[in-house]
Amino acid sequence: MNFNGMWLPEAEDPRMQAGATTGEKACLVGYLEHYRQTLAMKCDGLTAEQLATKAVPPSNISLLGLVRHMARVEQSWFRRVIEERMDLPRLFQEEGGDTGFNFPEVDDDLVRASHALWQGEIAYAREVLERTDLDTVVDAKGDPTEVRDIIVHMIEEYARHCGHADLVRECVDGRTGQ
């Protein structure tokens, strides 16, 4: 179906249901949630093989790789940095530091596990944000950084990778928009 270049009618788009925000924290978290949902939408309805499809050589970016990478990013910023658990091993570090983009033979189990890992890290990050003030200063890899800066970085990280996801999805099945 064609919804004027959109994936869904605007009234059915889960990202458009939250309404207006009030306050800085709600605004920042709202944008972060918007991009989390956007990446999930870009992966919706694809097979394991389609999710593992690389964008264009020599890039190793795939939708499944983006999901795994964002699980790593969520874990690093919210568990390791904000909660100061730097002793926690980074996700996918044992795989040569590929940040999640390389993976073994893809199958439905790997897809389910990757999405569960990502959603688990998002759920944990939501809990951290619920109890953490934006003005809280943490040691972000040697630099004192306010939590608000980390949220802005996360928005930027997701926005950039959602752009990649748009291109990968278009390569996979031609679907564009939203």
Description:
With 178 residues, the protein is mainly α. The chain has 5 helices and 2 strands, in the order ααααββα. A two-stranded antiparallel ribbon has the order 1-2. The protein is globular, with a radius of gyration of 17 Å.
Count of helical stretches: 5
State the CATH superfamily name.
Answer: dinb family like domain
Low-confidence stretches: none
Q: How many separate structural domains?
A: 1
The CATH architecture can be given as Up-down Bundle
Task: Give me the Rg, rounded.
Answer: 17 Å
Number of strands: 2
Largest sheet: 2 strands, antiparallel
Helix content percent band: 40-55%
Strand order in the largest sheet: 1-2
The span between the termini is 14 Å
Note the overall shape: globular
* CATH T-level fold name: Four Helix Bundle (Hemerythrin (Met), subunit A)
What is the mean predicted local confidence, pLDDT?
88
Classify the secondary structure makeup into a structural class. Answer: mainly alpha
Assess the beta-strand content as a share of residues. under 5%
According to CATH, what is the class?
A: Mainly Alpha
Q: What order do the helices and strands follow?
A: HHHHEEH
